[in-house]
Amino acid sequence: MASLARLRASQRIFRAPFVRAIQTSADTTTLREDASTSSPFMVKLHEDSFQAFNCEPPSLDVQVSKDELITMYRQMSTMRRMEQAAGALYQAKLVRGFCHLAIGQEAVSVGIHNGLTPDDYVITSYRCHPFAVLRGGTIKGVIGELLGREVGMSHGKGGSMHIFTPTFFGGNGIVGAQVPLGAGLAFAQKYSEHPRCTFALYGDGAANQGQVFEAFNMAKLWDLPCVFVCENNKYGMGTSAERSSANTEYFKRGDYIPGLQVNGMDIVAAKQAVEYARKWTVEDKKGPLLLEFVTYRYGGHSMSDPGTTYRTREEVQRMRSTQDPIHGLMKYIEEWGLATEQELKQIDKDAKAEIDAAVEEAKLSPEPDEKELWTSIYYAGTEPPFMRGREREEVHHY
Q1: How far, in Å, CA of 38 to CA of 114, rounded?
Q2: Domain range list for the chain
Q3: Ranges for the Dehydrogenase E1 component domain (predicted)?
Q4: Taking the model in full, what pTM does it have?
Q5: Distance between CA atoms of residues 199 and 32, nearest Å
Q6: Rg (Cα) of the chain, in Å, rounded?
Q7: Domain spanning 36-366 has what CATH number?
Q8: Alpha-carbon gap, residue 214 to 183, rounded angstroms
Q9: Contact between residue 30 and residue 43 where contact means Cβ atoms under 8 Å apart
Q10: How far apart are alpha carbons 377 and 93 in whole angstroms?
Q11: What is the Cα–Cα distance from 130 to 120, expressed in whole angstroms?
């Protein structure tokens, strides 16, 4: 009994302090005026959509349009279909290596993309497939890369995470390594006097990395146009935030860098926060900002993780059925009279057909030729006359 009492006392000592939870429902935005199918109209976000640290939160009054909402619905639906296809290909043993899916977190990637300009930069960690497509890549290119085929965005040589576009600097497999890289991209933007910003994403599991705080320091020291984005899906690799972090309010961990916690399940709130952050760094030139999107992944950390050893199936099902970002946006569109249920189902059907076609095209693509072993090592035009392989006799001449 005495040992039990000591255990309970220790639990009371180390239990995380009560933190007011941010609103994470996907469908709490309301109309401020009659919706219009032909012109923009005003909606109001839930009062707990944002929590701010050393800055004023974004306005809860947001202007939206039918075209914008339909576009984001189509993008979220397509990205989920793509990730589901990637999962099926992995289970069929056609995808080898690592595969981390972003099913459930679509409002973050789509919200970021639609809140930025085409010239802004994005760099992220494992869950990079949606960003690769949204920032200038193709679905066939992503699926092809996962399958290790020539049609892949890196010609089948990189696989998941190693996919890039002129404004998307890939996913990174080293935990937290993309954060200082993102700060470096922002440094280049400021040095070149380009009116752009960099969004450097990391997860709650990487939030305790030393290099993350080193990047924070340099970014604030030089007031770089960098937005550090914590995708808090609450479990890191497989440990709840409360068990891994003394301070789970990640938006407050930038010290001198102001922060904003965002409902990452409502696409309207996500996009509003991104536009606010871009204005902060680029137009107002206030230096870096820390965004924390409170979101949720339905699957495990990776395809090799069942995702149910550290949380219950009931919890996952509850999130799917009550806080899904795609269903939330669907509800807005239907209730505001912007499109019918049948029209939205057709969008879903079209997305599935697009994904199915991309998968079949990627499957037909051959594996990369052996000559590809010698490409993409040096910047084009700077290659040496020859390069030695693994053995002294193995030499490739350019």
Answers
A1: 20
A2: 36-366
A3: 74-369
A4: 0.92
A5: 31
A6: 22
A7: 3.40.50.970
A8: 10
A9: yes
A10: 29
A11: 16
